[in-house]
Amino acid sequence: MSKAADVIATLGGKDNIELMESCITRLRVQVRDVKGVDEKACTALDGVHGVHVSGHVVQVVVGPVAEELADEINSLLK
User: Fold this and answer.
1) Checking DSSP bridges between strand 17-22 and strand 26-31, what pairing results, if any?
2) What pLDDT is attached to residue 1?
3) Residue 32: how many CA atoms within 13 Å on its side-chain side?
4) pTM of the predicted protein model
5) CA quadruple 70, 6, 61, 20: dihedral, nearest 10
6) Which pLDDT does position 78 carry in this prediction?
7) CB count, 10 Å around CB of 9?
8) 36-61, pLDDT tens digit by residue?
9) Catalytic residues, which ones?
10) Alpha-carbon torsion 34, 6, 18, 69, what sign?
11) What stretch of H or E contains 58?
12) Using CA of residue 14, residue 37, residue 26, residue 8, what is the dihedral sign?
């Protein structure tokens, strides 16, 4: 599985993701059900430096590869 697919899985799967965008070092993800997010599994992924959850918004800290990773994730969400 690719890193993008792994991130999607830890965020509760394709159907749990409403919106995905990148910031300089983070992926900002709006999820339908925050209970579907596995913070520990996401943080354990190679290249993920942290996960912050606030309401239905999850920020995945991935460093300078955020834009490239967001593009790959968004292509898998289509």
Assistant:
1) antiparallel
2) 76
3) 7
4) 0.94
5) 40
6) 87
7) 16
8) 999 999 999 999 999 999 999 999 99
9) 23
10) positive
11) strand 57-61
12) negative
